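Good morning C.,

I know you're traveling, so I'll keep this short. The sequence:
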Amino acid sequence: MKLVLSGTVENISTRNDGTLKFTIGSQEVDSSQAGNLFQLRNKYIKCLLSDTNITPIEQSLIDEEVIKDGRKIKSKAQRLRAVLFKLHEQTQTNQTFDEFYNERMEALIEHFKSKLND
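The tokens, ready to paste straight into the viewer:
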């Protein structure tokens, strides 16, 4: 499904995992556009934000980007960081996440360094 709306970026905020959340206020939409928008709720989508008209070339470039299994594919490093973040949340510690992350990553690095032949 494709949905093109006009509007303004009303709010931008950061999240703990480094991602951004932004709110867009649209101009008035008809009921079918509103229904289409609700169908996209909680789905991984692609979007192009522009303060000019979207050209056919730009639209085709966006269409060529692949959505895999309807979700964002994280790198192994991003997955490890996310797991460490969850572990930090579950651990009773006074450390900040950055301190916790650095400590755990250093431990992992030292573990694998010890496996190397000199």
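Safe travels,
E.
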